[in-house]
Amino acid sequence: MHAHLGDRLVVESPTTGVVRRDGEIVGLHHEDGTPPYDVRWSDTDDVTLVFPGPDAHIQHLEAEGDEAPSRTGTGEQNAAPGTPNPGDVGRRVAEERRRRGLSREETARRARISPQYLAYIEEQPAEPATATLLALAGALGTTAAALRGGGVDRPPGQGHALLHPRLDDLDEKECRRLLSTHGVGRVAVTAPDGHPAVVPVNYEVVDDAIVFRTRPGSLPAAAAGNEVAFQVDHVDEAMSEGWSVLAVGPATTVTDPDAVRGLARRAHTEPWAGGTRDEWVSIRPTRLTGKRITPAGRPAHR
After folding, report:
1. Portion of the chain with pLDDT greater than 90, in percent
2. Structure confidence by residue, pLDDT tens digits, 214-241
3. CA 52/CA 174 separation, integer angstroms
4. Which of 80, 116, 159, 263 has the smallest count of CB within 10 Å of its CB?
5. How does strand 56-59 pair with strand 47-50?
6. Other C-beta atoms within 10 Å of 128: how many?
């Protein structure tokens, strides 16, 4: 029997196969992932040292879905494999721990998990069990909902400001990189009644042009024939940092049938607003500017 941190230990009835007990493996004692294990039981939230019997088996994290992170090797050595690529929960846990001046070892002790598993949670897109998340929330003086990102429906930017922020201008190359190939941005237009308006749209980047689908006569369609501003940004609430890119240029309606068909074929997503939206508007940026805010001392480009 071999296990990884975060795997599930399942104990079944030897006669009926019914699950009698299960828990999350939060600590290993051998680098090769062999027993015994520290297990946080889902029914009691107790952490105990377990030597699995013949009625127990390991449910590996990879088996829980295609989104599960891949891991190489075995045991505690892969608690933080490769370059850190934290998920949202991991970033929030790490940031809350740093704000409170707690080491990994102390936080792990309070949450009754191994420091290696805490490192795995913070550095990889892990999905800790509810009991472990509750234990971490208690250790950090916060709530499991906050660590999961509760409140994401609130406007971004309500987190703590950085103690020593650094604001950098982005060059055109970096702005184009951040625009990427598609996403959600906002286009600023003048409405038919003469009032300014800002409208979110699903956009694509095709041959350096920003294109989006809309309906004839809609508010986004009013961009065509005018010079407009288009903005894309990203805010990392857990880290109190982010970036913003502003593109300015003329907008036109795409009328060539072959070009319209080509855009439809290359589209990554359907417009979130739904309905029939077969008019394409293209913005050719003549000016690209951007800003990035990060903690002072961290390189501007990561």
Report:
1. 40
2. 988 889 999 999 999 999 998 776 667 7
3. 53
4. 159
5. unpaired
6. 27
Query: Smallest Cα–Cα separation from 290: which of 164, 165, 178?
Result: 178
The rounded distance, in Å, linking the Cα atoms of 21 and 34 is 20
Strand partners, 292: 168, 243
**What is the spatial distance between Cα 39 and Cα 5, in angstroms, rounded to a whole number?**
10
d(C-alpha 89, C-alpha 36), whole Å: 27
Q: What is the pLDDT of residues 251-302, one digit of tens each?
A: 999 988 998 888 888 777 777 777 778 889 999 999 999 999 887 765 555 4
pTM of the entire predicted model? 0.52
What the block records as the tokens of 137 is 């929330």
Residue type, 289: T
CA of 78: how far to CAs of 33, 82, 86, 185, 231, in Å? 10, 8, 14, 38, 40
Q: Summarize the confidence of residues 16-41 as an average pLDDT.
A: 89
Look at 211 and 276; give whichever has higher pLDDT. 211
CA–CA separation, 271 and 254 (whole Å): 17
Structure tokens at 198: 């800002």
List all residues 6 or more positions away from 280 whose beta carbon is below 8 Å from its beta carbon: 211, 212, 213, 253, 254, 259, 260, 263
